[in-house]
Design a protein that fits this description.
It contains 9 helices and 18 strands. Helix content is about 35%, strand content about 20%. α1 runs antiparallel to α9 and α4 packs parallel to α5. α6 links the parallel β8 and β9.
Length: about 425
């Protein structure tokens, strides 16, 4: 009799416990650890740490980045995959070596100081030379990399007719494209701004997608909050004119600024440009969340022969918007003649929230705060479509753990009370 009364509560406890276990497993599976000794090889200007970080982000994983001097053996239990980047020769500690030998997840070692005892381990891949293929080894990247055509740095002062000619050329050739527009904060009501947005809407009507380029920073002390507010203002101005930026375009230096994290993760998809002035990257520990899609920008140069085999992760071939039409056509045709085909960004589902405004894109539909809109900015029916987002579940784990403990405590109290009642009934 007592078991029948307690059966529903017991079932709830089992369900919550099972849910907690599944969430913890999912969190562990998505974690990646990157251990490094220095950001570059001594005497070299190549920032290998930054290159590896960008490559790991491309396989859809966030990561914790730790300097080898901060390593402790308790760390490894939290991860399924570990990357090790040694740029310079040094002694590897016995504790570090033994921890790796005991680790059951995947290990990808890049560079120097490889531990010989790891050589025959099935879970270990070794790349003595730094390469872009390292991050996507052993089937890490499940899908073929996507390639996009990007018209870059589209300013309001652009030659309007020249820009229209580029759009018409791409549309007539059946080439899908993306426009990275520069943010505008002032003079939003000028006729020139209205004409500029008319052309951007025309690009949208021809299948072009719009993304928002970050502001050009001349003062390195500008905070992430100020930058995010400015880009949020620019986003709202474009939306007022029926232009819908669906992602952000930022330099890779933003990835390593703690106060820029909210801006960087305001978009589920991110286009990343290599910052030539990124400088030294050096920290004991730093964390980066993953994105739905990371697209690396590749600057197009005249007469450079790009080969499909060179593309190992999602890439946007970037052609500057102010090129004359003849050079623009030549550069596009040069890429295509080398056997590279452009993917349609229509299928690049996205979600971006800036300035309190949320824009989602699914297939060819754009939703402004969950309302379906067309290129002219007219609203229609409310959409029931939602997009699954990658979120930080650490707080949810804690909440579920606390709830489970509370319910288990209540369950125990009820059991004790029920036993007492049953005993009293028995001895009456």
């Amino acid at each position: 009799m007592m078991f029948k009364k307690l059966k529903p509560l017991l079932l709830i406890v089992l369900i919550l416990t099972s849910l907690l276990y599944k969430i913890n497993v999912k969190a562990a599976e998505s974690k990646t650890l990157l251990i490094y000794d220095s950001y570059n090889e001594f005497g070299s200007g190549e920032n290998r740490l930054n290159s590896l970080v960008r490559e790991i982000l491309n396989v859809g994983s966030g990561m914790d980045i730790i300097n080898v001097n901060s390593f402790n053996k308790e760390l490894l239990s939290q991860y399924q995959t570990v990357y090790i980047l040694y740029n310079n020769p040094s002694k590897v500690s016995s504790d570090f070596s033994q921890s790796l030998l005991n680790f059951k997840g995947k290990i990808i070692w890049i560079g120097k100081n490889f531990v010989p005892a790891l050589k025959n381990q099935k879970n270990v891949s070794y790349f003595p030379d730094f390469s872009e293929e390292a991050a996507i080894s052993d089937g890490e990247q499940l899908n073929k990399p996507k390639v996009y055509l990007l018209i870059d740095e589209v300013y309001p002062i652009i030659d309007i007719q020249g820009f229209i000619d580029k759009i018409n050329f791409l549309y007539d050739q059946g080439i899908p494209f993306i426009c990275s527009v520069m943010p505008v904060y002032e003079n939003q009501d000028f006729d020139a701004m209205k004409r500029f947005c008319d052309v951007l809407r025309y690009a949208q009507s021809k299948g072009g997608k719009i993304i928002l380029h970050s502001s050009v920073i001349t003062d390195p002390s500008v905070s992430g909050k100020v930058m995010q507010d400015k880009m949020g203002l620019a986003q709202s101005i474009y939306i007022k004119y029926g232009v819908y930026p669906l992602a952000i375009d930022v330099p890779d230096s933003f990835l390593y600024k703690e106060d820029y994290k909210n801006l960087v993760h305001s978009s589920s998809n991110i286009f990343i440009e290599r910052d030539k002035d990124i400088g030294i990257i050096d920290f004991q520990k730093y964390s980066l969340q993953g994105f739905n899609n990371v697209i690396n920008k590749q600057q197009v140069y005249s007469n450079y022969n790009y080969k499909p085999s060179q593309i190992v992760y999602n890439t946007a071939f970037s052609i500057n918007a102010d090129l004359d039409i003849s050079t623009f056509k030549s550069q596009v045709e040069n890429i295509i003649n080398n056997g590279i085909y452009f993917n349609d960004p229509e299928y690049l589902d996205s979600d971006i929230t800036l300035g309190g405004i949320d824009i989602k894109s699914k297939n060819d539909d754009v939703f402004l705060n969950d309302k379906l809109v067309n290129e002219k900015g007219n609203s229609s029916k409310i959409s029931s479509n939602t997009k699954t987002e990658a979120v930080d579940i650490s707080s949810e784990n804690k909440s579920i753990t606390k709830a489970t403990i509370v319910i288990c405590g209540l369950f125990l109290i009820i059991v004790l009370i029920s036993v007492r009642i049953e005993r009293r009934k028995f001895f009456k």
